[in-house]
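Hey,
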Amino acid sequence: MKPKPVIPRDQADRDVDEAIDHYLSGSAPEAALGFIDALEQAYSHIGHHPETGSSRYAGELSLPGLRFWPLKKYPHLVFYLERSDHIDVWRVLHGNRDIPAWMRDPDSI
């Protein structure tokens, strides 16, 4: 099966930029690079196997089909919906955040 392209929304890109800035501001350029590598691996995985993500928050947020995939070695989660022709990445959030509150942010829709 051909992988679907993974297309992050603007809010997901802002989430990623915020995470990278956090690692760089802590003088951890290696961590920032590792985060980028882990994110690329996650995007590749969900492009190939979108059905493997957890649907834990889909019911709570009334977003049928919403799934997430964790980054390896980083506490971030990639939230996405599988579309017919691509993977729609909504957010990339730190797992310790109040996920439902952050996902309900009107700027993320």
